[in-house]
Amino acid sequence: MRSKLLSNFISLFVLQGGQYILPLITFPYLARVLEPEGFGIMGLSFAIMQYCMLFIDYGFNLTATKKIAENKDSKRKISEVFWTTMASKCFLAILVFLFLVCTVYAVPSFKEISFIILLASTQLIGSVLLPGWLFQGIERLWAVTISSLAARATAVPLIFFFVHNPEDLWLAVVIQAMTTNMAGIIACFMVYRYKAVCFEKISPQQVKEALKDGFPVFIASIAISLYTMSTTVVLGVVSSHEQVGLFNASDKIRNAITSAFLILGNAFFPRVNALLSESREKAGRFIKNIIFGQCLVTLATSLTLFFLADFLADFALGEQYSNAAHIIRIMAPMVFLVTTSVIFGNYMLLPFGYRRIYTQVPTIMAFIHLGIVFPMAYWLGAVGGAWTLLLTEILSFLALLFFCFRLGLFKMVFGTPHE
């Protein structure tokens, strides 16, 4: 089991390295070539797509992964989960696209960039096709690594070759959207090529049960997204595209660093569930090691990002994004806050059965965030959005910390639990 976990870590580091380095090559180029307004429109379009993909994923990255991890020795059960999840995602994708079209033409600020938004929506196909949850559950993350890196590597030369000025915005959107689709196609081919699943007939009732089982995680994911992804959309509604571009460019730097740690959860989450099926003691020891190791590293990373904000803003964005360093400094503590909150929620509350609290905390935070972000974004633009996001993450961190203490989960992790 240790060798498989090591293999997953290596795959994740290669994957995250590629996902960080490859966009890092094109990100400064696009920020300069498209200019703040064009970069803001592109960022707003893809932020809307993140919401759409969140509905399509429906929490399956956790619920389907958990089911597969618990039944990894049964190909029939894995196949049943696979086909049920794929059918559920296809059903959700149709509903999401219809709702998206109606929304785009109903909201004036979206209607004026409707062509770009609809071009970005082509990546929803890849969201359906990419079975990352399958490879996470069977702990073969190298498949996700190969498919994602191959697709991203293809996009790099295409962006430099075709995108040269703000008028090429539509090409930049198409190329990046196609990356997701290509990754999904490659991953599906690998599922077929290596016979990871066999065909299993499923019923509408199974799809209904899958949607019902994933609903609490879906609500939590939506609630979390309301304060992690909504800021870009809110800025697009109440502020200018330039402010969206400034916030989006700054947040991309912070988010790239945060994602380097969050993606490790793709290896940690199935392992926590697998160990928990053996004993609470084994799962507790594993979580303790994550807490000690990851929290120290992410705290140091937040401090480094804070002090290097000026250098990173100048190096990655240039003088067109004048205030980016200030926004990066505001969001620097979030590297520690977000990754530690994921430990409390995904590795402690959710696996140990506290789904209600796992759902309620981000829901409350979402309402708090939405109550503050509109006036803050309206009066202070990108800076107001950054301060609101930081405040919400602090409150979320403290709430999750409180419940983990109150429910005795820290005592279980750091004490001597009995099976």
From TrEMBL:
It is a multi-pass membrane protein. It is found in: Cell membrane. Keywords: Cell membrane, Membrane, Transmembrane, Transmembrane helix. The keyword Transmembrane helix applies. InterPro entries: Poly_Biosynth_Transport (IPR050833), Polysacc_synth (IPR002797). Its main location: membrane. The chain crosses the membrane at residues 39-60, 81-107, 113-134, 141-163, 169-194, 215-236, 256-274, 286-307, 327-349, 361-380, 386-409. GO terms for cellular component: plasma membrane. This is Membrane protein involved in the export of O-antigen and teichoic acid. It comes from Kushneria avicenniae. The lineage of its organism: Bacteria, Pseudomonadati, Pseudomonadota, Gammaproteobacteria, Oceanospirillales.
